[in-house]
Write a structure and sequence with these properties.
The protein has 13 helices and 3 strands. By secondary structure, it is mainly α. It has a 3-stranded mixed β-sheet. α1 packs antiparallel against α2, α2 runs parallel beside α8 and α10 packs antiparallel against α11. The radius of gyration is 38 Å and the shape is elongated. Keywords: Hydrolase, Membrane, Metal-binding, Metalloprotease, Protease, Transmembrane, Transmembrane helix, Zinc. Its EC number is 3.4.24.-.
Length: 355
């Protein structure tokens, strides 16, 4: 089990540090889906594997062992992880699960606040909401019922073609549900901080995804690149938490990608990213199979309730056994072992009389 857990850790590191490099060379839509899938697989395994290790020791507690038909002494002998490691795994699972719940609650509250704040007010075509605010800002609120929010301070500084680019970019965010992709990777990072490099990689890929969608709709990649650069210089922020905007991400890299030809599919890189996710899942499956083997070996072969307390809870005193000796073959009567009958020599002789 120790070797399997070590292989799992190597797979997690490969996903955390190798997946962002591979994702930058993929089309942004494929990169987003694969990066989030890889992060989700590692985050799930990083909670399941320590949970299984911790349960190997929790199953020896009297309140737990009465539920399952296994022996505490057998579990103690078959568990390869020391008590300190099991306690650390249990603390890790509790800590990271609470962290995931806290991040989910905070992000969902922010999403609801953004939607409620921008739900009122007249909307123009394409769910566009223009705010009478001098600070330049442009973002989209999360779907469903998402809206494109642009301030008058930005709207007046853009030309009509650039406005079309902004609307196409934010419409792509709404149509593809980019807010939920970002929320998913944030939850994965909360489950395992080792996945922190994937959060900016996914944020960049969703912006690149919206850029490519806008370029296909407008038909001019240079116009989209110029608009992205201008919007980034004017806004300098992506808007409130829970929203995505045209000025987000690494803008120089986005502009350079728009000035280059459209990305082409790369099946080998897709297979490599899928293999990293599969490696993490296989390591977790190996730990689960070995854990089942330990519990199978520790199961009592007697019917439920027939095991002695010493056997179930691993006490040192063994139950007394009453030994009853059965008669062996030598004690059975038979012709060969019957007592000797007195022969003629053994019979008493009559006393002789003399005349």
């Amino acid at each position: 089990m120790i070797v399997t857990v070590g292989c799992g850790l190597l797979a997690w590191c490969a996903v955390a540090f190798g997946a962002p490099r591979l994702g930058r060379r993929l089309p942004p839509g494929n990169a987003t889906a694969l990066l989030v899938s890889a992060a989700a697989s590692v985050a799930t395994c990083s909670l399941l594997v320590p949970g299984m290790i911790a349960f190997l020791w929790l199953a020896r507690l009297p309140t737990v062992i009465d539920i399952g038909p296994w022996s505490a002494a057998a579990l103690r002998a078959g568990t390869p992880v020391p008590l300190v490691g099991a306690l650390a795994c249990a603390a890790w699972v509790v800590w990271r699960t609470g962290r995931v719940a806290a991040v989910a609650l905070r992000r969902l509250r922010a999403v609801r606040a953004v939607r409620a704040e921008n739900a009122a007010g007249p909307a123009e075509a394409d769910r566009l909401l223009v705010l009478d605010v001098e600070r330049p800002v442009a973002f989209s609120t999360p779907p469903p019922d998402g809206r494109i929010v642009v301030s008058t301070g930005l709207w007046r500084r853009l030309s009509q073609p650039e406005r079309q680019v902004i609307i196409a970019h934010e419409t792509a965010h709404l149509r593809r549900g980019h807010t939920w992709w970002l929320l998913a990777v944030d939850l994965c990072v909360a489950a395992n901080p080792l996945l922190s490099p994937l959060a900016p990689a996914v944020a960049q890929s969703v912006e690149r995804w919206a850029d490519e969608e806008a370029a296909r709709q407008v038909g001019d990649r240079r116009l989209v690149a110029r608009t992205v650069a201008r919007a980034a210089l004017l806004t300098r922020s992506a808007g409130p938490v829970g929203a995505v905007g045209a000025g987000s991400g690494a803008v120089p890299a986005r502009v350079a990608a728009l000035l280059a030809p459209a990305p082409r599919p790369r099946p080998l890189l897709v297979a490599a990213l899928a293999a990293l996710s599969l490696a993490a899942l296989l390591a977790a499956a190996g730990v689960q199979r070995q854990t089942d083997a330990i519990f199978d070996a520790a199961q009592l072969r007697r019917p439920a309730g027939a095991a002695a307390p010493a056997e179930r809870h691993g006490a040192g005193r063994q139950p007394r056994t009453r030994v009853v000796a059965r008669p062996g073959p030598a004690a059975r009567p038979g012709p060969a072992h019957s007592p000797a009958r007195p022969g003629p020599a053994a019979r008493p002789s009559r006393p002789s009389s003399t005349v």
